[in-house]
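I have been asked to look over a protein record a colleague put together. Thanks in advance; the entry in question is below.
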Amino acid sequence: MTNTVKTSVKFDKATGKYTVRIGDSKAFTTGKQSHVEWKFHQVTGMKKTFAEIAGESQKVEAAKDAKFNINARFGFVEQLVSMVADGVQPSAVITGQGGLGKTFTVTKTLSDKGYKDISDLGELAAGSIVNMRKCFKMVKGFSTAKGLYRTLFENNKGIIVFDDCDAVLKDPVALNVLKSALDSYGKRIISWNAETRGEDDLPRSFNFEGRVIFISNMEEGAIDQAIRSRSMMIDLSMNDDQKIERMGHIAESPEFMPEYDKGIVRDALALISELKADAKEISLRTLISISKVRASNSNWKDLATYILTA
């Protein structure tokens, strides 16, 4: 047994739990450091303290971050989404915490590539569009395996963006549907052989010619191996310093809160950075809220601190 096991240990302040991945072992979540140590021993045969395990994880993450900082990784997202838009790659998976611009980056890149967002159109209207190859549809929230099959059929030839639809990434039936949809063969035949009640307007099988982008808040290692092997993936997981770095980059863009002076947004970001250890949440939503408080009056810090940390 070697002493070099890739370990990821991330603490969620909101839940008070650790999300851990050890080598090729599936990720697990626990609130106890002793459980992390026990699992590490079970997987590797080595006994190490939680501090040692977490320290090794931080070294791996630090080495990755030194080579590719968070803004560079968002740039890679744009490149990968462009590859999907151009038909070079059939699927992509973007993982990482919510509220820091994953969805915005994906949809903006698709729009810049000339794709029309048909998310607000009804299913029949969407299916009647002649040039589906230049359209994309956002699918948000829960979806069943049958709902996934219908979505793939009705939006064939275009791009489907599953945003925070983690249920389809966990359901065994949905995963089998996705495996066929994401294959790299010339024809990607998707079948639905389950019994149906009453009339069903869906075919039992069809050739899927579309492309798929997943945006998920799940840990990269928690994504099913079959999906990872068929897709190109970019992980945008961030620590607090990286979140603030990313927010600082976005805050300077003309599109972000254009109604406010940039000095107001910078003041809000500075306070978030100062109180990051005690903040309930660090995201663009946090920055927007604190910026609004900053703009409301000169005696703003107490209220902003309360909103940020209470």
About this structure: Residues 281 and 308 are 7 Å apart (CA to CA). The chain has three domains: 7-67, 70-235, 240-309. The two ends are 46 Å apart (CA to CA). Residues 240-309 form one domain.
